[in-house]
Design a protein that fits this description.
Distance between the termini: 90 Å
Strand content: 15-25%
Number of domains: 1
Helix content: 25-40%
């Protein structure tokens, strides 16, 4: 069969060029936005793992810190102080505070001292709450003290920020929450310390 009309390949027109450039631009934008979303997701997961590390450490410390000769003595319930009188061998116990324990936890060689906020590459900071309107709170860790209420109360416990002056001479419940990449709260765990 003989074809007398050869098929002509038309040249690209302006609409064709605009379409091709648009498709390439859209694909580049999708690749970039996927990369950014992945990066933010990794940072959020790292923040969650930091919270899980704290939960694990506090849980283990909660089971061991009432033993004599506990390794992290600043997190033991009490400190024993000798009487200043030279003739006396009496000692007294004073309750430890969360501030003493926190300082020991955040100082090397503690495993928690190496943890960082992946959003800002800074040491972990603690705060009172996550606030979506304040982006500086991303990666923040929140430690709340859960205080039981009397039996029959509508709420089983009240929550308050765990502050440095809080005594740690008794078992306590601690809630751990972290702030994600948009400063929304992510609940991690409630542990007994």
């Amino acid at each position: 069969m003989n074809d007398n009309n050869p098929v002509k390949n038309p040249a690209l027109t302006l609409p064709d060029i605009i379409f091709i450039i648009s498709v390439i631009a859209i694909l580049m934008f999708l690749g970039w936005s996927g990369s950014v979303a992945y990066s933010e997701g990794v940072k959020t997961e790292t923040t969650k793992r930091n919270g899980e590390e704290w939960a694990s450490w506090l849980t283990q410390a909660g089971t061991e810190r009432f033993n004599t000769n506990y390794v992290t003595s600043e997190c033991a319930p009490t400190a024993t102080i000798s009487n200043t009188d030279t003739n006396s061998t009496d000692t007294k116990s004073i309750p430890r505070t969360w501030g003493e324990c926190l300082k020991a936890i955040m100082t090397p060689p503690s495993s928690l001292a190496a943890l960082t906020n992946p959003f800002f590459d800074t040491p972990i900071t603690f705060g009172a709450k996550c606030d979506h309107d304040d982006e500086s709170l991303t990666g923040l860790m929140i430690l709340e003290k859960l205080t039981p209420t009397p039996s029959g109360s509508a709420l089983p416990f009240t929550t308050s920020k765990l502050v440095e002056s809080d005594r740690i001479d008794q078992k306590m419940q601690i809630r751990i929450t972290v702030c994600d990449n948009e400063a929304f709260p992510i609940f991690i765990a409630e542990v007994e310390f």
